[in-house]
Request: fold
Amino acid sequence: MLSMTAQIKIYEQMRVLSAQMVEAAQSADWDRLIGLEKSVAALRDTLIEQHVEPDMSRDEAQRKAALISGILEDDAEIRRHTEPWMDKVRQFLGGAAKQRQVERAYGAGL
Reply:
């Protein structure tokens, strides 16, 4: 079981990483973005596995809420950069899949 102080430290680490993820998304550094996302996921899993709602002070509750809000803002910014790229990937893969279907239907000699 994590204390509230330990939970807040994890949220702080997640916030730092999410800001780095924004930078990676803005520069289209997809490999770095993936690595950072894996680090955030590991921290999230720790919170989930060890989570118990401990009593928290008003200051702790406000800090936790502010960190979560910042992480969500970063997530929206990351999506703003990754979704157009993902759409291009989907179109490319969709076109490749259609090409394979045509080749299977009519033979690869086209």
